[in-house]
Design goal:
Glycoprotein, Type 4 Pilin, elongated, about 55% helix, mainly alpha, three-stranded antiparallel β-sheet
Length: about 170
């Protein structure tokens, strides 16, 4: 029985390297497992776990890179049609913060920066649309105001601008 124990211990170490290597393909938390697989492979001078760990880390970078690109940067693609309703929702949220500012100070703010400086950090006030462009804020005479997004083309004054009056 004594000669079986070392084989089992060696087999467990081999299995652990493969398990950590495989788990490195789990997005985000797999980076930690990938690093462990790389270390185990390097310590034991085995390149397969190292390649698995590197592959898992690259997989995470690829997945989250694509999500960031298509969700934030790209003006076309699978998430492009969701950005217009998201921008309207962001406008509604900002309009609520502007209304709270008016109730507190008695007048509409002159700029969005004035609202941002008086808004608690826990409150959501973005000042930007889904394309990461600042809203244009236009106070009007009758205690109403307008928020305008430049839209997908990121240029104000074009047909794709999104305007809401509150």
């Amino acid at each position: 029985m004594s000669d079986i124990a070392p084989k089992d211990a060696s087999r467990q170490k081999t299995v652990a390297r493969w398990i950590f290597g495989g788990m490195s393909f789990i997005p985000l938390i797999g980076v930690l497992f990938g690093i462990i697989a790389i270390i185990l492979g390097a310590v034991n001078r085995r390149k397969e776990p190292v390649f698995l760990g590197i592959g898992g880390i690259l997989f995470t970078v690829f997945i989250y890179g694509n999500l960031y690109y298509w969700g934030v940067v790209a003006t076309t693609g699978p998430y492009a049609e969701l950005k217009v309703p998201l921008t309207r929702q962001l406008m509604e949220t900002d309009a609520g913060q502007i209304a709270l500012f008016k109730n507190k100070h008695g007048v509409l703010p002159a700029t969005l920066d004035e609202v941002a400086s008086s808004t608690p950090e826990t409150a959501m006030f973005t000042m930007t649309d889904a394309w990461m462009n600042k809203f244009k804020y236009v106070p009007q005479q009758d205690d109403h105001f307008q928020l305008i997004s430049a839209g997908p083309d990121k240029v104000f004054g074009t047909s794709d601008d999104i305007q809401e009056t509150f």
